[in-house]
Amino acid sequence: MNRRPALHGIRVLDFTRAMAGPYGTQVLADFGADVVRIESVPQVDGVISDRGSGVTKINGESPMFMTYNRNKRSLCLDLRAPATRAVLDRLIGSADVLVQNFRPGVAERMGIGWEHAHELNERLIYVSINGFGTKGPWRDRQGIDVVIQAMSGVMSVTGEQDGDPVLCGAPVADFSTAMVQAQGVLLALLERSVSGVGQHVEVPMLAVAFSSLAHHLGPYFATGTDPVRRGSGHSQFAPFQAFRTADGYGIGGVTRERQWAPFCRVIGMPELIDDPRFAHNADRVAHREEIVALVAPRFPARTSAAWEEAFAEAGVPFGAVNSFSQALESEHADANDMITSVDHPLAGPFRMVAPPLRLSATPARVRRAAPLLGEHSRDVLADAGFGADEIDGLVADGVVVDGAPLPAAAGEGS
Amino acid sequence: MTTTGGALRTVLDGIKVLDFTRDMVGPYATMVLGDFGADVIKVESAPRGDPHRTGGTHFLGGESVMFLNWNREKRSLCLDLRAPETRALLHRLIADVDVLVENFRPQVPERMGIDWPTASAVNPRLVHVSITGFGSDGPWSHRPGTDVTLQAMSGVMSVNAEPDRLPLLIGVPFASFTTAQVAVQSVLFGLLQRQATGVGQRFEVPMLGVMIASLGTRLGPYFATGENPVPTGSRHHQVAPMQVFRTADGLGFVGVSHDKFERFCNAIGRPELLEDPRFATNPDRVEHAEELAAVLAPVFLERTTQQWVRLFEDAAVAFSPVNTFSEILESDHVRESGFLTTVEHPKAGTIRQVAPLVRIPGEQAAIRRPPPLLGEHNEEVLREFGFSATEIGALADRHVLHTGTAPDRRER
To answer: Can you tell me the mean pLDDT for A351-375?
Structure first.
């Protein structure tokens, strides 16, 4: 059976910047939606460009930008020009989804607020990603990953017990928000298929970060006691933390009662199995320091990989603390096609992570690299019903920027 | 026409989910489906059910608070999963549900007869989701995947450390939480597509793949240069200054994006930094981040955290206190914004929870059902799937069905 991608024919106007928004719309693009990034030259106040972010560059292109903007097209406009409003109105009229992550009020000033968009197109699903929600004293604040990590309590539980809170090395607030945003679009598309009408969907980053507090929440809400940082240790299980091995670090341990005996046997300390101090998880958590002092000296005897194998056989979770190269270049990542590559007209072949979600009949496809600025301005307007003369006029007036590369330089991904 | 406020809450009305998952990642995902109206039937293994019912260190009314936190909106069906008649029973359920979610280790679904080939033969409309640790291929596919092993093996932990110290665990279960969100996506993709095609499909959500995708800002530079990123503690690796500073009375996190440095220097009363060639551009500031931090550290000691909050708010520079749980969860902002909710549980009483994440502005989410007691809905569920009272009685007599009393948390 020849089946179309799950989001075939869904048009997304993507006004988002930075990471949380673009990574979420990329998920939609990976599954077949036509995602058009709306960008501005020159820049407009409150609408920053994210094309130049970071210090690393390949032929002037930002690898950060290219990581979250594959499979999209770029339409570049002068968002300050009065003529632009009419262009945006026509695009909104034929779109299925609009996603924006401006600070409150900016979308309204630009003429793409929810009320206006809903009036133009009642089928439109309108997604607002914001830092702190629409109520409360912080609603106008800028929500960026690190600020959300700090304010949500995530940083308060990350770090050594005797040290300062530590920023999570992965952008946990941005990435989680991106995944929840994609859910929001899918939920609203499902609902629209019944009601025929779109709706306004809001994803506040702070609420997403709260939800990720996960196993800390129950104990906190039950006792009102703030959790503490435990370095690599787990608040609810012991022994369960990082250990120094012969060649680095590994992390793992006991999360189920039935794993305790095999754990003791693998590390060669069967005498601990029946030690009454460590009989149950609650006992082991209470005697965390004693137990760690007993078992930690065993780990330097073998390499992380040897421990991984031994624990895997015994059904006890354990993993090496891998560097990027160890993880991303591993035989295992390769066997599961977790990394892919796409040709970029300026940056050349560019490696990226393949969509983590696997569908049996209509898998995600990486079709094209992150777009050049305005690369698809003409195509997008033509698709929205603008005539060739009209488009030429808009380009000549500087309302629309045509950034398509010369045909010889154009490249498209596999 | 305007949309009604409750629309999102009932998107999945009428969708039946057979949920075989346990621990955190799967249950968190199926809770989200329940939040949006799906009928989630949690199939638990007799006699003790989901291991998280007895896990962790805190219990309310005999139920683990971890279990309570991510099992609302579900009904519990507790079965002897090893009994010979269970296979046929499960097939009767599978024939009449829309979604099946499992997070067993490889080969277990085959043994139980709930794997994709078997289940889709029973019900071609089924959306079938397998959450795995490492994917179905490759040398690590047989390993148990837990949040911490995935944080470690994916490279996430390698950038989560103070320079020269033991790597740290991200204090929240990031691998489990984000994999849960991707699993929810998979169900929604499957349902959307089924509307068009009339048939279901199989999804696989490998935690390792999700974690690798989460390396986010760190990935592009790695793929561009092949250099392993180094941990920088509380300092950002691509932007400076973006890190924790000590204030007169605590800790604050300041984040100055590349276009805000001038505003920042003026706000802190140090315009002379703008003339310093070491700090001229963001790449210069990242290169000289330690020198910049040394210059700024004494400045931040001059005021309290709240004074800095007000000062930077006026200057539109990102600054925030590093909040503890109680500071944030009991704050005015969180109270007013409706991010938290409560649910009544028959044994644990009133429990506080985080409200559903995808919202309609202005609407307060209502939780319909507390986390279930073990086997609480055995009879109710089987009746709905066409089992007669006699059949249900016989299954109970043969201990295929199991109704839980409060689980013994001191299990071995």
So the answer is: 79
Residue B209 burial (CB count, 10 A): 27
Cα separation, A107 vs A87, whole angstroms = 15
Model confidence pLDDT, tens digit, residues A209-261: 998 888 888 888 888 889 888 888 887 889 988 899 999 888 888 988 889 99
Q: Are strands A318-320 and A249-253 parallel, antiparallel or unpaired?
A: antiparallel
Please say if the pLDDT value at position B412 is more than 60: no
Q: B341, B365 in Cβ contact below 8 A?
A: yes
The yes-or-no verdict on residue A394 having pLDDT over 80 is yes
- C-beta atoms of A146 and B236 within 8 A: yes
pLDDT, one tens digit per residue, over B41-50 is 999 998 888 9
A184 and chain B in contact, CB less than 8 A:
yes
Indicate the helix (H) or strand (E) that contains A27: helix A20-30
B64 vs A contacts (CB less than 8 Å): 218
Å from A223 to nearest chain B CA?
Answer: 9
The contacts of residue B377 (CB under 8 Å, 6+ apart) are B41, B75, B76, B77
Structure tokens at A93: 């009229």
Q: Note whether B318 contacts A147, CB cutoff 8 Å.
A: yes
DSSP-derived 3-state class of residue A298? helix
Pairing of strands B59-60, B63-64: antiparallel
B332:A137 CB<8 A: yes
Q: Let me know: does A315 contact B104? Beta carbons within 8 Å.
A: no
3-class state of residue B98 by DSSP: coil
Q: What is the radius of gyration, based on Cα positions, of chain A?
A: 25
**Which three-class secondary structure state does DSSP give residue A97?**
strand
CA atoms of B250 and B361, how far apart (whole Å): 34
Between A191, A315, A336, which is nearest B138 by CB? A336
Q: Is there a contact between A350 and B223 if contact means CB atoms under 8 Å apart?
A: yes
Q: What is the CA angle A366-A368-A374, rounded to 5?
A: 145
Q: pTM for the complete prediction?
A: 0.83
